Amino acid sequence: MPDLDTPGAATAPRPDARPQRSGHSRRLQAADGTLLHARYFPRRDGVDGDLAVVVAHGFTQSSHSPQMKRISSWLSEHASVVLLDLRGHGRSRGHSTLGWREVLDMDAAVSWARALGYRRVATLGFSLGSAVAVRHGALHRGVGAVAAVSVPGEWHYRGTAAMRTLLRLILTKPGRGLLRLLRRTRVSPSGWSTPDPIDARAAAAELDVPLLVVHGDEDGYFPVHHAWQVHAAAPSGSLWLERGFGHAEAGATESLVTRIGAWLDEHTLAVDPVRA
């Protein structure tokens, strides 16, 4: 098993030629052998652009959830989209490690976007997926910008009732069973390595590309200080505090997602994947 908190390349998928049909699915393999499911959506206006955005969902979501389908459709106004099922979710294999090994999943999806011929690749994550996107950008690099929506700035946060309930489900065998049965989410019982992997706040400080942090003032899971912590740590980027916005995919609107897409299009740097 590789050291998962050091940069490393995912197993490269077979190169594909553009264009492909909207919603084209692909089986990917992460560097630790986990099989993953991803979907590709070309830019909606048919323009053969050079930007692809790899999108990672939040906990218990997947590429086939109604929220993620809407988000990919809205986002495709500005870029082509690779929509990823993180391990333990949707049609991907394995078990969720709550942001630790999922950086390998993101790296496999970024590699696919590169294989499709996109010169600029950005990542966008929601909640759990936002922590994965920030950590991937710091540890594996290879992307030109990162956007994090409803990002948890620190691990093991218990300051809200929603997070205390969620942690009770994640950390107990009966709770993990309920998540598997009711939300089709498989959580690993093994826990993390020691010490804990770097959190999103620490990872943000290691980014060498712009970071967009988007957070709602009505987030019931992570108060706005999480967004401030992550934004303050990043060398460059923007912070959007959205009035009336709740948490992650559930609160995302077409207006917000298209603004994020425009920001990524404007701020994404062309990265040489060989040198990254």
From TrEMBL:
InterPro entries (UniProt xref): AB_hydrolase_1 (IPR000073), AB_hydrolase_fold (IPR029058)
SUPFAM superfamilies named among the record's database cross-references: alpha/beta-Hydrolases
Record's keyword annotation contains Hydrolase: yes
Region annotation Disordered: where it falls in the sequence: 1-29
Entry keywords, A to Z: Hydrolase
Residue intervals of the AB hydrolase-1 domain: 52-140
GO MF annotation, one: hydrolase activity
Stored Gene3D superfamilies: alpha/beta hydrolase
Stored PANTHER family: ALPHA/BETA HYDROLASE DOMAIN-CONTAINING PROTEIN
Record-given protein name: Alpha/beta hydrolase family protein
Organism: Jiangella alba
